[in-house]
């Protein structure tokens, strides 16, 4: 296992040309616990969900993947990978603001959201009046959390971003009517139905008349949608069967073996390097230990539990659609363990050149574009 492939990616691309309704700029936003993912008419973006306030003076040129955010009050923050690089393995981080149920209410959420918003509008001049934001929530959280999410996403947003030593300022206002929130797995379903040009995919006719399950395993939650006879019969959210659990089990093993407590944001650095560094202040030495075996053991444990969680429906479906970043890690295990079940396993990235973790954001975008075009 190459643990680097499990770390959250950092990229922003402006090289696409997706269909879009005249006069309206659509943003498909998946504000995941590990990272925001956006698909928009000219590209896509993802970066780690973490920010760190800059308290000292900055020197030199910013590195390529550095995002510097500044709010109206002049406070500056590193966002994404640059913020994670400020951490050591034993840095203390408040994880509730990142991974708690009420993370929408924390200032860190606003900073990360506005950064994603600004990057999506990097090549667009707008005050927000011609925008539409399509997003989603885990099924079990939608009713209770939708008012909080709408409050966080709407209103006036004034800030500036610096990337690759280019600074742009934004003043964007979004009303409630410019935001729609669907059940998260529906993003992947819509993504599979449409090609990049907006036409229906070859799979669409069969998908729309078949019994299926969408298995959306992201960072914090496993969300499932079971559709039978064209009716949504069951939808669940399990907060204990995502990549967070895999990494939490991994860091428990690290703690037990090496006595080192690693914060969840710092685990991204550990994944990128594939090792844990243990510093000895008495001898002034550092020893590095590989963590691959810990990650594999943790992944197998959680994957087995996830398969058990969906067993009630697997003989009733024609398609099992695996989506979310964690599902890529488990695709081979699912294919092997469910090889005797008469169904077809699909990835959420069908009909798209984008990785699976973009599937919900892409589906949000494509479904809203189709609705607005009509």
Question: Explain this structure to me?
Answer:
Strands 1-4-3-2-8-11 form a six-stranded mixed sheet, sandwiched between helices. The protein has a five-stranded antiparallel sheet with strand order 5-7-6-9-10. It is built from eleven helices and 18 strands. The chain folds into three domains: 3-189 and 354-373, Nucleotidyltransferase, domain 5 (2-Layer Sandwich), CATH 3.30.420; 201-242 and 304-347, 2-Layer Sandwich (Nucleotidyltransferase, domain 5), CATH 3.30.420; 243-295. It is an alpha+beta fold. The chain is 32% helix and 28% strand.
N-to-C series of helices and strands: EEEEEEEHHHEHEEEHHEEEHHEEHEHEH
Task: Quickly name the level 1 CATH class of the largest domain.
Answer: Alpha Beta
Helices and strands: which structural class? Answer: alpha+beta
Return Rg in Å. Answer: 21 Å
Strand content: 25-35%
CATH fold-level topology of the largest domain? Nucleotidyltransferase, domain 5
CATH superfamily of the largest domain: ATPase, nucleotide binding domain
- Number of helical runs? 11
Mean pLDDT: 91
- CATH structural architecture of the largest domain: 2-Layer Sandwich
- Spatial shape: globular
Q: What are the low-pLDDT stretches, counting only 5+ consecutive residues below 50?
A: none
Q: How much helicity do the residues have? A: 25-40%
**What distance lies between the first and last C-alpha atoms, to the nearest angstrom?**
46 Å
Across the major sheet, the strand order is 1-4-3-2-8-11
